[in-house]
């Protein structure tokens, strides 16, 4: 991975450990030239930079989808709330300006397009086949399942599905992404690798 991009990714606001980010980059770099990478759950763009570096190496494109109002666990009173991401005018979370700065500083806007909206709404009208789908949106059971249902049908045959924050043991974290993993395994995907909480799967059916 490009050293400058790696350093910017590691310094960006977010929750992607370096080893998982490196695995994300490797998967993106394997996408066929001209392919589309779709990220569901952008936050401030940390994981987006790993995907962008891989996409640039592969000759692919990244689309990242987020409503930028923060997931449930990012809201005031929750463990992962960051008050610096609250818009003082509205009192609401707003990570979009931070994403813009992340992409501009890294100079990856030639390979990354940000789509602002709820993933399940965008997924309804989406029509372009996806070579790699990275799911890292809301972690409630309802939202994680909604993200999966909205986007999994767009993954092309042989395409990759990456799921973040998979914790089989409830003592380690929430179970919603793990349940999405189990569903994907039952619906035509095979697991390819594990790095920390990141699982990489391939569509075989």
UniProtKB/TrEMBL annotation:
* GO annotation (BP), single: methylation
Keyword Ligase recorded: no
List keywords of the entry alphabetically.
Answer: Methyltransferase, Transferase
UniProt cross-references to SUPFAM superfamilies, sorted A to Z: S-adenosyl-L-methionine-dependent methyltransferases
Record GO terms (molecular function): methyltransferase activity
> Could you identify this protein by its name?
Class I SAM-dependent methyltransferase
């Amino acid at each position: 991975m490009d050293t400058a991009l790696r350093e910017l990714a590691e310094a960006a606001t977010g929750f992607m450990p370096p080893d998982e980010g490196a695995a994300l980059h490797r998967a993106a770099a394997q996408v066929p030239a001209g392919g589309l990478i779709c990220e569901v759950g952008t936050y401030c763009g940390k994981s987006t930079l790993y995907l962008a570096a891989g996409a640039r190496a592969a000759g692919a494109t990244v689309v990242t989808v987020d409503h930028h109002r923060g997931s449930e666990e990012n809201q005031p009173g929750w463990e992962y709330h960051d008050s610096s991401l609250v818009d003082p005018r509205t009192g609401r979370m707003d990570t979009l300006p931070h994403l813009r700065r992340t992409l501009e500083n890294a100079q990856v806007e030639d390979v990354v397009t940000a789509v602002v909206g709820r993933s399940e709404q965008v997924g309804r009208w989406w029509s372009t086949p996806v070579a790699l789908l990275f799911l890292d949106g809301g972690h409630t059971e309802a939202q994680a399942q909604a993200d999966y249902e909205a986007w999994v049908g767009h993954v092309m045959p042989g395409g990759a599905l990456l799921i973040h924050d998979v914790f089989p043991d409830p003592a380690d974290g929430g179970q919603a992404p793990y349940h999405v993993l189990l569903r994907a395994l039952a619906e035509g995907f095979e697991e390819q690798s594990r790095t920390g909480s990141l699982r990489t799967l391939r569509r075989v059916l």
